[in-house]
Amino acid sequence: MRNRVALVTDSTASIPVDVADRLGICVVQLELQVGEMENDERRVPHTELAQAMRDGVAVATAPPPPPAFFWNYTDAASAGMESIVSVHISEGLSQTCESARIAAAEINVPVYVVDSRLCGLSVGFPVIAAAEAAASGAGTQQVLSVLDRRLRATTQMIYVDTLEYLRRSGRIGRAQAMLGQALSIKPVLVLREGVLEPMAKGRGPDRALKKAVKQAVQRAGAGQVDIGIEHFQYAERAHEVANELRRHLPQVRNVVVAETSAIIGAHAGPGALGITISPVV
Known about the structure:
The protein is α/β, with parallel strands linked by helices. It folds into 2 domains: 5-29 and 64-152, Rossmann fold, CATH 3.40.50; 155-279, Hypothetical Protein Tm841, Chain: A,domain 3 (2-Layer Sandwich), CATH 3.30.1180.10. The protein contains 11 helices and 13 strands. The strands form 3 sheets. The protein has a 6-stranded mixed sheet with strand order 10-9-8-13-11-12, with helices on both faces. A 4-stranded parallel sheet has the order 2-1-6-7, sandwiched between helices. The protein has a 3-stranded antiparallel sheet with strand order 4-3-5, with helices on one face. Helix 3 (66-78) packs across helix 4 (96-104), helix 5 runs antiparallel to helix 6 and helix 9 (205-220) packs across helix 10. The longest helix has 16 residues, at 205-220. The chain is globular.
């Protein structure tokens, strides 16, 4: 059955390359500047980025320019797609959606730009579900419905080793960062209505992540669920968290443990860890 709806997302969604290729999902790269070097985020090694951040090198991120979206949309239209669903990182964190809207205005097929209000695999899992619906022959409204249900059901939590990097990128205030450092607090944040808010905290990573796992189990519900554990130079702890969630959630369908998008790492800092809980609805 021929696809009628094209799916486009951005690189912060952390969709595995083989999955994107299989489902025909177009992935547009955000841009990263480390010192004097500018590049697509996929071309920036995470080890180099982490070291640069620890050394105090200036790091900045930018949304894809509108032409990057325009050419992907043009390719989809040329392939005969009836519509394009373009799903992106929260507008509370990035101007990626605005860049997509500028490009969409120049395309002669309908483009639905969706602010996910999430980031990372919390965007990736819903986009994959929507792409699977499209691959089965679903029309635009059906695809949008699948996408909306998964986005609404999904929770994104982020543990950070220090609040300093979020302060540098303007995601929290100076007072909040200083409080965390003064008390050796390790915070867990949640994306609520598209912006980062405190969810839990603990003295040291063990206590903080134990609270994060407890929250994740509560939010998973009783049905099938996809879990994503993304980390920035914290692989051993990411696998520990994944194993703990498997132990508490026997109804898990998919578990993805992966290095996070360099863009998200540039804001959250080395030692950050993201937990996605995405019920299959």
